[in-house]
């Protein structure tokens, strides 16, 4: 298991790359071992994930999914994204199988990425790259738009395992 407090986002725009970095390191320890400068790696990921998207607007769900998929494809899994519509079953199933799930949150608009890294007894463990720490959030708070402990109340999108890659 990756130590989640080893990295914080370096600025107001690298929450997505930081989440992708932590998820990728969790799934691909060999990759994680090569990261000696987390700040530089966040910026490298940000540039790679946002070739056509302005970096000042953060990272798109498809960009986060592509970065994570680059590390999970050798394991036979691809990540994809979907809008959050109140159903966490697929996310909970993924996390219970040790596949982290990225969640895009915000208020009126999507603004911040967090990473769901665990689930037990109806409570999610969410890595928040702004703080470099894990917060406990009841599943019901996600559904009822009460995510203030993560900085914003509402979930907008999930990036999670979506399909198995043929060998």
From TrEMBL:
Domain of life of the organism encoding this protein: Bacteria
Q: What is this protein called?
A: Peptidase C39-like domain-containing protein
Native source organism of the sequence: Dactylosporangium salmoneum
